[in-house]
Amino acid sequence: MLLEVRDLHVEFRTRDGVAKAVNGVSYGVDAGETLAVLGESGSGKSVTAQAIMGILDMPPGRITGGEILFQDRDLLTLKEEERRKVRGAGMAMIFQDALSSLNPVLSVGEQLGEMFVVHRGMSRKDARAKAVELMDHVRIPAARERVKQYPHQFSGGMRQRIMIAMALALEPALIIADEPTTALDVTVQAQVMDLLAELQREYDMGLILITHDLGVVADVADRIAVMYAGRIVEQAPVHDIYKAPAHPYTRGLLDSIPRLDQKGQELYAIKGLPPNLMAIPPGCAFNPRCPMAQEVCRVDVPPLYEVSAHGEPEHVVAEPGAERVSACHFWRECLHG
Amino acid sequence: MSDNLTLPAQQGPADVTPAEPLLEVQGLTMHFPIYGGFPIKRKVGAVQAVDGVDLTVGVGESVGLVGESGCGKSTTGRLITRLLEPSAGKITYAGRDITHASRREMAPVRSEIQMIFQDPYSSLNPRQTVGTIIKSPMEVNGIEPEGGREKRVRELLELVGLNPEHYNRFPHEFSGGQRQRIGVARALALNPKLIVADEPVSALDVSIQAQVVNLLKKVQEELGIAFLFIAHDLAVVRHFSQRVAVMYLGKVVEVGDRDAIYNRPRHPYTHALLSAVPEVEMDDDAEPRERIRLSGDVPSPIHPPSGCRFRTRCWKAQDKCATEEPPLLQISGNRAGHLTACHFPEEPTTEARDEDVILDPALQALEGSADQG
Description:
The complex is a heterodimer of chains A (337) and B (373). Chain A has 2 domains: 3-221, P-loop containing nucleotide triphosphate hydrolases (Rossmann fold, 3-Layer(aba) Sandwich), CATH 3.40.50.300; 227-336, no CATH class. Chain A has an 8-stranded mixed sheet, with helices on both faces. Chain A has a 4-stranded antiparallel sheet with strand order 2-1-4-5, covered by helices on one side. Chain A is α/β, with parallel strands linked by helices and 337 residues long. Chain A has 13 helices and 12 strands. The two termini of chain A are 34 Å apart. With 373 residues, chain B is of the alpha/beta class. In chain B, strands 6-7-8-3-9-10-12 form a 7-stranded mixed sheet, with helices on both faces. Chain B has helices spanning 73-80, 103-110, 130-140, 149-159, 176-188, 206-223, 234-240, 258-263, 268-276, 319-323, 361-372, and strands at residues 21-36, 42-58, 62-66, 88-93, 96-97, 113-116, 194-198, 226-231, 243-248, 251-257, 292-293, 339-340, 357-358. Chain B has 2 domains: 3-112 and 192-278 and 286-372, Rossmann fold, CATH 3.40.50.300; 123-191, no CATH class. The chains are: A alpha/beta (337), B alpha/beta (373). At the A-B interface, helix 7, helix 8, helix 9 and helix 11 of A face helix 6, helix 7, helix 8, helix 9 and helix 11 of B.
């Protein structure tokens, strides 16, 4: 495994109380694999990613437990100096809003080249040449001229390409993309998503794709982890999850997206609101909104059960590395009903 | 809030264009001037945000207006609600020309045309209670409903699925979805005949988005309110609107009923837009859809391309497209009411083609290298 997150806990101390943003998340990514992390705002998907990158705001954030193993080293025990070397060269991140992630007063060439100056000790001139090469690689037209331009002179899609180029600069083993296409228009979104997927294949990188859009995920991901209230509620290969979800929340999400091939029917809507992270409901966090909830759901926190679509799974509670898991006491009923 | 807003399937003549138009827009144009120069500033150009849009919304009909950012869809909405003064064109509401109506002339119409905004955070005054927010349209227009304004506010809160007891709460006490419901209640306060909804659900989470779409649909059907639904999300529009207009760079390029736009599109841009929507395939034997990847972004509306505005990104463009602007017409092969502005229209299908249309050089190169390696 390239990256393995084990039982990660993150909380935020605020004036109003302690918000438990991540409550025992475990997932892993291999080289050349794409893991999609799906969830609504406040589900903890971005906080987990920030903890992996080591860019969590601390305080108010605090990692209260767990391990993050990257290339067999626990990142949480590393010194900040070593952590910095991992960032950029080992793993890189692409953010949603390219305009605010780029420095408006530096040309894109300087920003791209800085990666090589800082991490590789190159001269400014060589770094500039590298920047042009990178921009060419993400197919920005007229890279040689545009390398001198500033972020505001690029369109949204081009800016996101520059972010991708920057992430690719040192050929990291892992890329974390946090909602990389959410701010873009559909036709541009499709271009950027395809580009990212192709580049991932070319470099054989691990990719963690964080998104709230089930559609974006379907085409590019190998596996999906669905998060709710700071926990993973279901994890499965992409096709299995779309065919037959094993958690009522995943089912609800799938049913509530408007689709191109449907018209006019009423949309299924998950009732209620996402939970307050300062007062997560006892038992299963989803139980107040769940159509299948029973007494046990209000009392017992469901463990991650191993799921098998055909026959009995090997273990009741999933071992690490299980192919398909669901945090629902009634995953069988959900899967088959 | 109500538990589940699932509604019974829609009945009746859904996809039929109603005979009686409520709102008619002809040749609507909005050019925002650009000033520059030194020492005397003068007009040096114009952002041609909306350039000759024709649109009709019937009584009780829901019309969708889709397009990418910068295509002028929101400006069109603001022109119709007269928040902006159009540069040219004509807006007729219920047989009355309101294009350049004065404040006083607009007064009786104002209460009938309402707006719902995209951002439920900035469109509600944080210092006012929910009751005050919903009540103020009635106060401004001097309307005294039966049983008093407060009673009406409570009714409205209940209608949009909020607890009427929350009358005295402030917007920050509500979640994004609930705030959008407050916005809906405010728009309904004056019993409008037309609501312009500008991206009403795009700021919301998926599970909440479905709740609000269902609420708007309920309101539209039960109260018979006409909607101009402005959105960039084609799937949401398909759910909500009986007729759909597709805009590109200030112009309507295709308009038709739901079935025409989604199943029998003719304009290359509509094809590209539909094929770019990422879709969840739950069904293995679903028909493969066509794959089109445009290159680049929408051109600047300050210097739009000559002729057909889409030609710079179109795979079918020829010399004629640069010199002659295609009119919005019912081209041969289209059913009644389905208009397309294109010289060389596509086949009316969304099925996969023999060869994908990939105009993006980055993808072309990558796919080429993948084939060799």
